Each structure stands twice: as structure tokens, then as C-alpha cells.
């Protein structure tokens, strides 16, 4: 890799956990929907235990909502929402942040910043049920722009090292 250009890949929605939840919710909600529909048939075994009104209707409704949510998850995985890269070009003194969005006229999200606009690199760790480790680019007179958000899979030390290297490369301070 060129020593004047650094490019970091951003994963987006194509994570193992999203595949798991899309499959799990899809299968579970399909069964809910089918059991709700089968309960309307008075000759089925299920209709002896579950009456169509109100249990069958409610199960069909929840099943349909689950199927739609699973479809949404599959589409975000297919379209790779949120994936892209962060490119830091020392030669041009420019930063490019690229992400894939939802289909439409704003599918490609490109943000460009000059090195002079960069105030600092901020490293943040929120500890809780779902620990989130984040790396932000602080822009002068603007918001913080997230560069990376990591779940439990990556170590904080690795992100800390990457943040220090990036701050040194950009010649800005590191806020922890």
C-alpha cells in the first residue's frame, strides 16, 4: 500500500449476526404465519388446539410482520448497507468517506474533507449489555463522523492502536 494513502474497509450489514437473525426470524415467523393460516381449516389437527379467532389471526399477523422484517434484513444484507471505506490521502491532504446506502438517487454516499478541517480522532467505548467501541473523526465546527463501530468481536486495544496510528498519520490529537 502507498505510504501516502491509507484505506480502511468498513463492513456494514454483512455481519454473521445479521445472517443469523435474518434466518432465525424468517424461519420462526414463517411457522407462525403457517400455523395461523392452518388454524382456519376446521379439519386440521392444529385447529383442535388453536382457534382461528383470535389466536390464528394474531399468529398470522405476527408471522407476516416477522416475514417482512426478515425480508428487510435480507435486503440490507444484499445491498450491503453501510459498507464502504475510509480513505486518508496525505498527498492530496483529503479524506474520503464512502458508504453504500439504500437504492435510489443517494445510493452512493461520498463525504470529502480536507486535513485542515480535522480537529481530532476520538475513541469511545460504551460498556453495557452490548459493548460498543467507536472511532470518530472530529471536524472543526461540525459533528463527529463515525469511522468505525465495533461490537464485541474486535479488541479495544486493536482499535486503540489503529486510532493512534491514524492520529499520527493525520497529525491530529487523539481523544480517548
TrEMBL record:
Seems to be required for the assembly of the photosystem I complex. It is a multi-pass membrane protein. GO terms for cellular component: chloroplast thylakoid membrane; photosystem I. Keywords: Chloroplast, Membrane, Photosynthesis, Plastid, Thylakoid, Transmembrane, Transmembrane helix. InterPro entries: PSI_Ycf4_assembly. GO terms for biological process: photosynthesis. This is Photosystem I assembly protein Ycf4. The chain crosses the membrane at residues 20-39, 59-85. It comes from the Eukaryota. Its main location: membrane. The keyword Membrane applies. It is found in: Membrane; Plastid, Chloroplast thylakoid membrane. Pfam families: Ycf4. Belongs to the Ycf4 family.
Amino acid at each position: 500500500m502507498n505510504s501516502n494513502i491509507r484505506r480502511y474497509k468498513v463492513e456494514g450489514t454483512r455481519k454473521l449476526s445479521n445472517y443469523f437473525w435474518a434466518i432465525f426470524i424468517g424461519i420462526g415467523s414463517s411457522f407462525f404465519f403457517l400455523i395461523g393460516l392452518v388454524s382456519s381449516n376446521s379439519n386440521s389437527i392444529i385447529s383442535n388446539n388453536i382457534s382461528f379467532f383470535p389466536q390464528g389471526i394474531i399468529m398470522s399477523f405476527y408471522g407476516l410482520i416477522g416475514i417482512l422484517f426478515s425480508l428487510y434484513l435480507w435486503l440490507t444484507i444484499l445491498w450491503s448497507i453501510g459498507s464502504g471505506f475510509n480513505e486518508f490521502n496525505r498527498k492530496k491532504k483529503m479524506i474520503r468517506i464512502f458508504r453504500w446506502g439504500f437504492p435510489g438517487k443517494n445510493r452512493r454516499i461520498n463525504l470529502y474533507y480536507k486535513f485542515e478541517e480535522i480537529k481530532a480522532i476520538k475513541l469511545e467505548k460504551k460498556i453495557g449489555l452490548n459493548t460498543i467501541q467507536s472511532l470518530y473523526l472530529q471536524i472543526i465546527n461540525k459533528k463527529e463522523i463515525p469511522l468505525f463501530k465495533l461490537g464485541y468481536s474486535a479488541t479495544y486495544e486493536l482499535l486503540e492502536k489503529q486510532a493512534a496510528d491514524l492520529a499520527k498519520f493525520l497529525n491530529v490529537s487523539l481523544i480517548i
